[in-house]
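User: Could you check the structure of this?
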Amino acid sequence: MLLAVDTATKSIGMALHDGAQLLAESVWSGKGYHTVELAPEIALMLRRVGRSVKDLTAVAVALGPGSYTGLRIGMAVAKGLALANQLELVGIPTHDILAWGQPKRSEPMLAVIRTGRCRIAAMWYKWKKSAWKPESEILGITWQEALELLNKPTYICGELEPADREMLRNQPQAILAPPALCVRRPGILAELAWEYIRIGKVVDTANIVPIYLNTMSGKSV
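Assistant: Sure, the predicted structure tokens are below.
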């Protein structure tokens, strides 16, 4: 059984997946209490499905980009569980979790993650064959800079506040994902992690590090 944890931003999510089915999933908008909330919520989810930490065989964590504190907390919990219980640990980029939950579309997609300081981490994707594939590096930009990139119809998904949606509605090239599809689902993180495990795309726990966005250069590190 795999535990998926995503604390990359103010949205906190976790899921339990046994490789064949999603057993439990929870997502909520946190108020900056990730440290206090995460461990008790994991214990509660395990109790709800009648399992314990001893039943886990792997842990998945959102790598970022995202908030510095949020990423640190999620990574610390995931690594702690993996090392203490000799579990496989899989890291998945935050944008990929968001992109994998979007439907097929003909337009290019701009996936957006909030990183603080009035900036976003944006990444271009294009639908190829049967999935969304990255078409750019992570861009650390402002919303104004993002708008300047919209030179053709573009599907936009991610952490869109009400003010963001209002602004984007006035942009003729912007096609907004509905709010329900803008949530990064930990169940999707879990399924991506199982796929990584199946194809052997798992690295040593000590080598998994968060993806931070350098707000000065706008590049991921």
